[in-house]
Amino acid sequence: MNWSNVKLILTRELRDQARDRRTIFMIAVLPILLYPLLGMSMFQVAQFMEEKASRVLVVGVSGLLGREDLPPLLEAGDSTRFDKDLFHDAAQHRLLEVTLYPEEPTRRAEPKEDVSKTVRALVRDGKYDGAIVLPPELPDQLAEFRRAIEQDETTSTLQVQPEIVYSTANEKSQIAFARLYPVMKRWVEAIGETNLKAAGIPPDAARPVDVGSADVAGETKFKGAAIWSKVLPIVLLLWAMTGAFYPAIDLCAGEKERGTLETLLSSPAERSEIVLGKLLTVMVFSMATAALNLVSMGLTGWLILSRMPHLGSPPAESMVWLTLALVPVAALYSALCLALAAFAKSTKEGQYYLMPLLLITMPLVLAPMTPGAELDLGNALVPVTGIVLLLRNLLEGAYWESLRYLPVVGLVTLACCVASIRWAIEQFNSEAVLFRESERLDLGLWLKHVFRDRQPTPTISAAVVCGVSILVVKFFIEMAATAPGNFRAFAVQAVMLQVAVILTPALILTFSLTTSPAQTLRLRLPRFAAVPAAILLALLLHPVIGAIRAIVMELYPIREDLLGQLEGLQAMFVEPPVWQALLVIALAPAVCEELAFRGFVLSGFRHLGRKWRAILLSAVFFGLAHGLLQQSLIAFLVGTVIGYIAVQTGSIWPGIAFHLVNNSIGVLVARVTPELQQEYPILLTLFGAPGENGALYSWPVVLVSGLLALGLLAWFSLLPVAKSEEELQRELIARIRDTGPEVEF
Amino acid sequence: MIHARGLTKHYDDLRRGKFVAVDAIDFDTQPGQIYGLLGPNGAGKTTTLRILSTVLRPTAGTATVNGYDVVAQPSMVRRQIGFMSANTAVYDRMTAWEMVEYFGRLHGIASEELTDRMERLFDRLKMNDIRDLLGAKMSTGMKQKVSIARAIVHDPPVMIFDEATAGLDVLVARALLDAVAELRDHGKCVVFSTHIMREAERLCDRIAIMHRGRILAEGTLDQLRDWWKQDDLEELFYQLISRSEEEYLQRLRDSGNGGLAAEGAG
After folding, report:
1. Number of Cβ within a 10 Å radius of residue A561
2. Which of helix, strand or coil describes residue A506?
3. Which residue of B has its CA nearest to A272?
4. Residue among B3, B5, B14, B75 with most chain A CBs within 10 A, to mutate
5. Confidence bin at B261 (pLDDT 50/70/90)
6. Residue of chain B minimizing CA distance to A435
7. More exposed terminus of chain A, fewer Cβ within 10 Å: N or C?
8. Lowest mean pLDDT: which of A108-122, A163-177, A621-635, B64-78?
9. What mean pLDDT is predicted for residues A68-80?
10. Contacts with B67 from chain A: Cβ below 8 Å
11. CB-based burial of residue A477 (10 Å sphere; 0-12 exposed, 13-18 middle, 19+ buried)?
């Protein structure tokens, strides 16, 4: 990597973009003008936007007329308003417009059911926003009730009650309800007070004190932070993306279109230098756009919104956090946009990719907006969502909570950044992408091509297809399936899932897309020592895996309800005879998952030309196929180890043995009880005293077995590995690079 | 200077399966010599030259440029060559001076030496009047001059011109050919691809006639005329191509692929 070249490319691209009027307008002029204009029009519009009064129907008021013993419901002399005393906030008074139900219901004239039906229909049809129905019997019953209190008789509850009719299907009606409810409550309270008075009890007896409230946000710097903490991260992310997208299209697809890309590619600059230079350019624009938007919005907000009572201006610290977050966010989006743009043949095609990108990003950005969305392990692991939530926590001043998840969010973001940058570089290294001809899309021809030109082992895309289809089908089936009630049901479900969802797709793809199923699935027998070594490794690693699992669970606890379900399942495993449990939980997954993930998927990824990348990618798919996130993390680690064994031995069998033994110990350990430990003291040494989460290995055991496992892994690393074509090519190229061409002319 | 052995390039093609763009070609070029690749459109000239400029990787075979391997040492190879084709355009939002300077600096030339060299280059190519003109405002001829200046600013031992005269008017094309000849006289190794006989006749010291990814004949112009008993290069070219085409169709018929044979004939 020659940094002066990167710098050279960066300065050129920056100058190039700066000379482009469209870019400058999008990035600098638009945000500076946009928010003041928006703020101004908001101010203008607000003047015309009055709160509209709700139209309310009141039924049965006539019964109240002339009742001195009841507090007034309507204002004296104006039957279109409720009584002023019923409002806490005097301003609310004019927001309820009363219409009396024309035909007053009486016990004689109209059956009650009919009135109620008519009123409901009126509200449902939107003729009125809400209605209050006072049953005709109510005044009399209330009077009777009070008389009973006065005379100290035992009272019974009232037979009838006033009713508010509204519809949640209509927003205006919901508002009417929110306005009516406190009015009616106040009215009923007033009746209660007169009742108390009648009984000779001071009216305050029912409410000796008022509940006070104190908003402490005002004492910290975070007053009004709640709304800002939700809005600012979204503004940041959206503009960081927009700011990255347009320059990226111009820098890649635009250069391809204008024919200058080949000029650049034939210069001494390396592809990685070109990508990095362009990436930094895009990042600069992404950050500038986001920053300008934030500043412009912040200024406008400070001027306009700070006049509104419930909103403070954004806290000053927020700028620090937003600036810090801007760098990784911009890097992530820039790399993504660059890779997409590099793939596009023309700027026009590039523009098409904005929509899919938005469709993927928007849910990730907006998911944290849902009420109650909090930073937990699951959310922290989601690429963009994690950043938004972390930012929100920081803006709200929850530093410790943020600190706990910072490593996870940071790692995920970093991994995404690195992956997208690599993707972008790969795009620039791919001839198919750089010199892409527009081809007619012909599904039939393509399928024929896939089948006709198949290789002994699957392609990389085939491996991805296999992994993704397993995950998708598994997701749908698990959603549709009901939770098993007993072990029998569980066994049937689990084995079906393994065979139908994991094994079958892998086998179908193996036989249709490869010419050598035996090589693809690694059915070759390994050297004799490999299988016993794998079994021993599984035994030695089990305590270590258990310890890691304990740490993961401690750091990122599973939600209570899920934990309950898990424990239910675990209890189920102890029910059946051991051999049945082993068959379902150990043997079936060991065979099916190994053939799919270490067979087909790993064989495909070997074409990447890098052993470890292939192992890790296959482990990612293996991990994702394991339900809960916490389980996925563990499964990823186990998958990495098994993948390594599979590559080193060139055979599926040691992996199956490892998987089988690993799962079997799990089944057996679950059956270790204190009684059993007393009977066999060796178990006590291994596991220590039984804790809450069942048997856990004692630390010395973890340490010793971990060290021994490392030794065994070292043995595996010494095995001669059969390399893939691509890996051999890479090595050859590396050798020539070091020593020069081998052929002399 | 350039040595290609068994150079091959396949593309995946949905219809035909594997499409062989360059089929195991061998050739060698020397300094002070213009090596012409002559062939009809689609013969594999551009692919061959793109492999030499390391923009494409060969599927098989090797090629070295001034001692560096095109696959293993691509950036070293790119330092040895000046590459110019119909596809290597000029930046719209850069002036002539900036553009040449940019590539000079990418080649790692120190700034004083670069300014010096560029002044001489601009004089020689008579480009001083377009020094501060943006690429977007240049005529085709001006752009071509900038491209030449860009390709030779680092004084490379090897120059590759791929259909460089395509789309140029007579005057500009002539100026370009003169510039190429001058480069040879300065001892450069020049590879020049074209489908225009007259250019090849006028310029090239050795000519390789390419068709369907193979070199059908190779030698100096006189050698070619001698061997094929044909003085007119165009006639010679036509005969070679038609004969090869016939053989190709015959091969297809023999392999029982009638449909493709018909397509090939069409």
Report:
1. 8
2. helix
3. B75
4. B14
5. very low
6. B56
7. N
8. A108-122
9. 82
10. 740-741
11. middle
The secondary structure element, H or E, covering residue A99 is strand A96-100
The rounded distance, in Å, linking the Cα atoms of A410 and A132 is 56
Distance, CA of A75 to CA of A630 (rounded, Å): 63
Residue spans of the domains in chain B: they are: 2-255
Token readout for B87 is 């596809």
* Residues in CB range of B79: below 8 A, 6 or more apart: A268, B107, B154, B156
Question: What residues of chain B lie within 8 A of the CB of A439, using their CB?
Answer: 14
Neighbours of A352 (CB within 10 A): 11
Number of helices (H), then strands (E), belonging to chain A: the values are: 34, 6
Contacts of B140 (CB under 8 A, 6+ apart): B167, B168, B169, B172
CB-based contact A258 B15, cutoff 8 Å: no
Note whether A728 contacts B: Cβ–Cβ < 8 A: no
pLDDT in tens, A234-274: 888 888 888 899 899 988 888 888 888 888 888 888 888 99
Instruction: Select from A253, A272, A254, A274 the least CA-distant residue to A264.
Output: A274
Quick: pLDDT tens for A203-228.
777 777 778 777 665 555 555 566 77
pLDDT at A87: 84
Chains A and B form CB pairs within 8 A to the count of 103
Question: In CATH, what class is B2-255?
Answer: alpha beta
Question: Is pLDDT of A96 > 60?
Answer: yes
Residues of chain B positioned with their CB less than 8 A from the CB of A741: 62, 64, 67-69, 72
Task: Sheet with B189-194: list strands edge to edge.
Answer: B81-85, B158-162, B189-194, B33-38, B206-211, B214-219
pLDDT of residue B232: 83
Question: Which pLDDT belongs to residue B197?
Answer: 85
A745 with B93: Cβ contact below 8 A: no
CA angle A673, A679, A682 (to 5 degrees): 85
| Three-class SS of A574-586 | HCCCHHHHHHHHH
Q: What is the mean pLDDT of residues A378-383?
A: 81
Q: Is A324 on the interface with B (CB under 8 A)?
A: no
ipTM of this complex: 0.87
